[in-house]
Amino acid sequence: MTLIRDQRSSASLSLRNLSGLTGVSIPYLSQIERGLRRPSADILQTIAKALRISAETLYVKAGILDERTDNSDPVGELLRDSAINEKQKRILIDLYQSFREAEAAGAHATKAAPVRAKARSVAARRPKPAPAKAKQPAGTKRPAAKKRAPAKKASQKAAKKRTGRR
Q1: Integer Cα distance of 87 and 101 in angstroms
Q2: Contacts with 29 (C-beta within 8 Å, 6 or more apart), sequence order
Q3: Are 55 and 44 in contact (CB under 8 A)?
Q4: Higher local confidence (pLDDT), 74 or 118
Q5: Which domains does the chain have, with CATH numbers?
Q6: In whole angstroms, what is the distance from residue 158 CA to residue 10 CA?
Q7: How far is Cα 32 from Cα 51, in angstroms, rounded to an integer?
Q8: pLDDT > 90? residue 16
Q9: Is residue 53 a contact partner of residue 7, using CB atoms and an 8 Å limit?
Q10: CA distance 40 to 67
Q11: How far is CA 3 from the centre of its chain?
Q12: How confident is the model over 57-99, as pLDDT tens digits?
């Protein structure tokens, strides 16, 4: 799927970075990009999320979904939805329209920056090696070990056995 390779390249992500973001192995990602493997919908969704593109677009390219041929009207659908109130409808429509305007203005060129930042944050979250134990400064004493109760002598044990006491 050249779409994944193209999106990964435009986001300046290596296969290793994309693998870290998605949890999918590097060889498997490479095989998907070259069209040798057909990934599941779950794998495509994690890849889409990491690349910050629509999962639906990847599903269509992978042949999982058919491409939309209808000219649906999201604003009209929101206005007809009876499950949300008017204020919620207005907020959703405003948000949708702001995304559309930003996309039309060429904001898609700035999509790569958040993906690169996320790749750096994933690298920063990797476990760091444990710090080495600090050595005792010269001339300082270690705390004394706790003393244990003395072990019972064999003769005391033998005497108790003879008398029947425990």
Answers
A1: 21
A2: 4, 15, 18, 19, 22, 47
A3: yes
A4: 74
A5: 2-123 (1.10.260.40)
A6: 85
A7: 15
A8: yes
A9: yes
A10: 18
A11: 22
A12: 777 777 777 666 666 778 778 877 888 888 998 899 889 888 8
